[in-house]
Description:
555 residues; alpha/beta; Rossmann fold; two-stranded antiparallel sheet; 17 helices; Mitochondrial integral membrane protein; transmembrane helix; DUF2417; membrane; transmembrane
Amino acid sequence: MWGTKNNQSENGHEAHRESGDGAAASTRSGRSGGAQSRRSLETRDEPNERTRLLDRQRPPPNSDGYLDPDDPAVSPYNLWSVRFLRYFTVLFLVISCLWWTLLLVSIFVSPPGMHSRGSGFFDFAYTCLTIGNLLVALIFFAAPAKALRITTAIISGFLLINMIMILAVPRVRLEEGWVGIASVVWASIIALWCIMTDRVVAWGKREEEERLTGRPESRRTLKEWLAVLVASVITVIFVLIVILMTGTLGIRARDATLPMYGDRILVDGDKYAVHLACVGNVSYTHGKKDATMILEAGEGPSEYDFEHWAYNAQQNGTVSRYCYWDRPGYAWSDNAPSPHSAGMSADALSEALAKAGEEGPWILVGAGTGSVVSRIFSSRHLKQVTGIMLIDPMHEDLLHRIGSPGRGFILWAWGIISPLGFERLGGALFKGRTREDRVYGRNAYQGGKYIKAQLQENLVADSLSKNEVVSARNIQSSETPLVIISSAIETRRDTEWERKQKDLTKLTENLVAWDIVNKAPHEVWRTLEGRDAMDKRLEELVKAARKVQISADIE
């Protein structure tokens, strides 16, 4: 019995072992088959744009096999096309920032080949708008919205209008140059790119939600709604900005049609043109050519009031001929490359007169800051200048006032926002301001070119310009007749100004007269008493100039 039980037990153990071995073999076979099946499945799955972004071995949390809509794996970034657009958007942002930096530098120092005859502020504004659009597209990249696409489409439409106006109006096209054209074209392209990017991201988001969750998600989280709201508000602000820029550009196109007396003459290697006009005929007295009077305006264009006084002087026979011009950036003249000093303006005037066929002798009449240019011009044409009249002139020791850093920053800030044209548009729409007002009249100070010219004067007033006028004083002929007419209001208000006016009477040893006109402002010709004083002293200066010319001929 024991032998039988033992045999049975052994047989049972052997059977169990055989059964266990079979099960183990079956298990190994199953595992091997499963591994082969997975390898076969992986071999059949071709790599696509979603490869390596999702963990395919990760079990879905839902019993239906789909991911939860809030799962981080449900993202448009799963698509290579979406990531491709984001990479290129970042690249475009880097390019735009580099261009922005170059334009910022060119306001202060013009790189070779990048000088714009206009102010350069429109180019800068277009690039700022471009960077703004790209930043909005990147910051809110994963939160596409129809409102964002609509506002960006409006921006794109107005930018296309801007591009058409710049290309269609010859004067504006010349002022903006290739830099301005490239800036507005790039801004238009980027606006269209942002629209396309937002549409592709919206499509990718919908595709991934449908594939991974079973349906497109129509709901948004509070964070997503806030993102859409902020993005929409920012782009609405961009829409208002581009509308104002379009209106200002339209005013520029309108002002470009204003006719002018005289000519624009290319100077400084044909880099820019200055406006020069001459009135009257060349006359002779006792066989000697009469001097031509040259006007140099102060803080504004010559055409506004100042030239009217000269016209009256020519009509009443005090002078037979006079010329006036606009310094670079004023009225009809282009902006010069930066930096630009008073001596460079004097050289531009000399070149313009030579190209126009104008010859001396000259009587110089300079006002305010323009008197600095007149003094430098006189020192460089000693034999041709036979008389100088300075009207409430700027002394070289006071140039630091217009060259202060605070004033320069304010001018730069006004220049940056000048393309919006708040004052110019408001004046045209509600105050009836005309083209004349904006080009050379009471509102000329609002233009980008004028602001750029003032900024250029500010940057070098206490350095280059001061050195040039100090050198001019040392060179100036002591025999040249000189008239100084000062504002009583300015001299009473500022004792230092009065002392410097007195010092300017010593520029030469032939002082004809120094008048301090009572109740006259800085622009002395704006009062009747001031104009009378200027007329009287101009007659005396002309006579003194003839005597100097005759004595020079005798010698």
